[in-house]
Design brief:
The protein has helices at 16-24, 76-88, 107-120, 132-140, 153-174, 182-196, 204-212, 244-251, 284-292, 311-321, 360-365, 391-404, and strands at 3-8, 29-32, 41-45, 48-52, 65-68, 73-74, 96-99, 103-104, 200-201, 217-220, 260-266, 269-271, 305-307, 309-310, 325-329, 339-348, 351-353, 367-374, 408-412, 420-422. The protein is α/β, with parallel strands linked by helices. It folds into three domains: 2-99 and 200-261, Adenylosuccinate Synthetase, subunit A, domain 1 (Adenylosuccinate Synthetase, Chain A, domain 1, 3-Layer(aba) Sandwich); 103-196, Adenylosuccinate Synthetase, subunit A, domain 2, CATH 1.10.300.10; 265-422, Adenylosuccinate Synthetase, subunit A, domain 3 (Adenylosuccinate Synthetase, Chain A, domain 3). Bound molecules: guanosine-5'-diphosphate (GDP), 6-O-phosphoryl inosine monophosphate and magnesium ion. Residues 12-13, 39-41, 298 line the site of magnesium ion (MG).
Length: 427
Amino acid sequence: MSVIVVVGAQWGDEGKGKVVDLLAERAQVVVRFSGGDNAGHTVINPYGKFGLHLVPSGIFSAGATCIIGNGVVINPSKLIEELDELNKCGVSVDQLIISDRAHLIMPYHLLLDGLEEERRAGEAVGTTRRGIGPAFADKVARLGIRAGELLDKKVLRKRLHFIIDYKNIILSKVYEASLLSLDEVYTQYCHYGERLAPYIKETTVILAEALSRDQRILLEGAQGTLLDPDFGTYPYTTSSSPLAGGGCLGAGIGPTNIDSVMGVFKVYCTRVGNGPMPTELHDKTGNLIREQAHEYGTTTGRPRRCGWFDAPAARLSQRINGFTGLALTRLDVLDILPNLKICTAYKLDGKTIDNFPSSVAELERCQPVYEEMDGWQTSTTHIKKFDRLPPKAQQYITRLEELIACPVNLISVGSAREQTIEVRPVW
Ligand code: GDP
Ligand code: IMO
Ligand code: MG
């Protein structure tokens, strides 16, 4: 098993950072393949506690080359901040490589993300306002600027000239906002270019070389499957594909090179931002989970919406990712609850369905059908072996495994690296 894609299987924040940090100890290459600094991947290990937004969560593994793939959109100022922070904490970033094909977040992307959200008002997506949607839109519209262009100031100025003229028309005529100065943006991005130049490289050859040596490669997803622009709760989605398939595109390797796909699920559900979430709890239990688990966004600090595990959503996630193994996280959060529920189907307009509808309007009308189980009401945070878990916790895990139709590799019982039960070896 040399190439594993780690995928967020729900609405993001499943614990991908923790899982990648753990698996990276045995990897030679780790590639972040999608999203941008909308992601917030928490890693807690002997170096401290980190909320990574762009740098791959494998950066703490001295032996691993860490690549920010072509599928990521990079805000250079945020990346530089992150590198400085890691350096300050004694973490070497020498092994970081940035794909020269990765697109950059520009000042107008940040402005437009905010302006577009305000214009949507009641229909707002609830984005992280990091400029992600506008940057991916520009990539497809062939108006993007790529990391490689930072290395050639002449090219950078020429492209910026054309693009800023165009963006200024939109900013002033559509939104009556102030104009951006070409000189200021150019000077600022030249500084970023000077700082980031040592890291910017063509990355497909590096990955091909690693593959030819049969090295262990981890592809680190961002966001979650239900935020995918095709299969998620569109239009309440992000703008790049968090799916396993996105791993090939966003890293630059072929599908035949992927050996396994690890789906990371919380044992319940959370969502941050707007859009339907059929099992959302608006009651005391929802608040209890939020406070117990400190369910607040790593990137924006917004409270996460909390709810029961949603099997119809999980089955969609399994169908479109083809998971070969699971990491189930945050089992310990349920330790205090006397009763647990799992949504196994929905009631939609009087009919029972077990499918996750593609239409947001239908999803909003879906009522969860629950199966109830007793809680175990004892701490699991110190447990290292599956058969040492309370029997009711074992039953809960086994039920999720059955519903997702995929074997569990890892169970996480706390945020630290070592608070993990390895049920089946990953590699
Ligand atoms: P990511 O975006 O998928 O990497 O997830 P985030 O880092 O945004 O959010 C996951 C949160 O859960 C972080 O605060 C982690 O430290 C924490 N976490 C991960 N696994 C566990 C676990 O098993 N138990 C608890 N209590 N917290 C966990
Ligand atoms: P990680 O990698 C959770 C959500 C936003 C919003 C929607 C669109 O930490 O799991 P965007 O800024 O991408 O245009 O916002 O997507 N979102 C996330 N939610 N975890 C994330 O990343 C997210 N990245 C984006 O809240 O609903
Ligand atoms: Mg997160």
